[in-house]
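Lab intake sheet, docking and co-folding queue.

SAMPLE TYPE: protein with bound small molecule
LIGAND NAME: flavin-adenine dinucleotide
LIGAND FORMAT: SMILES
REQUESTED OUTPUT: full 3D complex as structure tokens
PRIORITY: normal
SUBMITTED BY: R.K., bench team

The fields below were copied directly from the construct record.
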Amino acid sequence: MRIVVAGGGLIGTCFALEAHARGADVVLVEATGLHAEASTAGAGILGAEAEAVTGAHGSAEAVAAREAMFAWLPHLEAATGLSARAARRGTLVRCSSEEEAQRYARWCAREAPSGRLLSPAEVRELQPSLAPCPFGALLFEEDGALEPARLGSAVSAALRSTRVEVRCGARVSAVLMDGSRAVGLTLEDGSHVGGDAVVVAAGAWSAELVRPLGLEDELHPLRGQLLELRPSRGELRPVLFEGKRYIVPRGDGRYVVGSTMERVGFDKRTTEEAREELRAFAARVVPAFEGAEVGAHWCGLRPFRAAGPRVGATPVPGLFTSFGHGRNGILFCRKSALDLAASLAL
Ligand SMILES: Cc1cc2nc3c(=O)[nH]c(=O)nc-3n(C[C@H](O)[C@H](O)[C@H](O)COP(=O)(O)OP(=O)(O)OC[C@H]3O[C@@H](n4cnc5c(N)ncnc54)[C@H](O)[C@@H]3O)c2cc1C
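RESULT FIELD (auto-filled):
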């Protein structure tokens, strides 16, 4: 089977690898460079349970996604010699009120028995650098994090060692149709790439490709800004969450602080306001981070869909999609590749 994929972010590339491993001929078409958009802008949290408790997705599928990543990454590293530096460093979710602590504890008992509510004293003992947590915090020890740029490099290297045809700098302008069936992609230069199956995995830009076929009016870009801090004092081991904000330790003195959730279309500019807000957040939850050196400030566009990712077949014969992963596309990139390969019966 020949499969053509539009989009070379982690969702498209991880699927291309899996489809190739299952014997398909794959052509991947990417408008700019591999992993040049949201996939390497991300913080890299594999926060299956921490994100589930705050309502981003169901916990069972997210835990399956996290475990699929941790099972796959050693193979990727063995094949390429490149590590994504993934670690199960745990996630710690600060409770902001007694009511929230009780609600989270009930959720844990129901959905995530591996999570537990720590008292304020237990939080202090675990992480002395944290500002007091008067309502305690939830700890999920199995959650983790990785470095997205390193994951992108490893996946790119793995792709280079396959017969997957990667065409970078080629923008898809439309899905090519033969009657009611999708049969390939039309590129901006007017050329066509044909296939037995067409996969749209173009992140936040996917709607432009499937909307003319009467699909998808929910997907929109959601800008997220991140800040890298290099504090000279204070230390954090787990990923710390407070609501939608977080601090991710890289394990080498760098910390990534995020993130904003802004509906500003395809605008990829960073703002002074977000920089100050993220710095203030970090200094409030880890007082020793006050005045820390800022290493970098960047942003990316999450492919956001309130109903969650759209992965699998569509009503258009021959057309498949994998987009809409919002805040958790790095966590889900392996599982979505497996799910999509299964729906293509590969
Ligand atoms: C600030 C921020 C923090 C994040 N933190 C995390 C995190 O901690 N954990 C986590 O799991 N997830 C995180 N995410 C989410 C995650 O990064 C995304 O869900 C994921 O990267 C989406 O991957 P994708 O391949 O669908 O999209 P993208 O990575 O955006 O890739 C889409 C690709 O399609 C290409 N493309 C677009 N249009 C066309 C076209 N017409 N023709 C050809 N190619 C096209 C683009 O150039 C791009 O390369 C974060 C995202 C952001 C922005």
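REVIEWER NOTE: The mean pLDDT is 96.
SIGN-OFF: pending second check by T.M.
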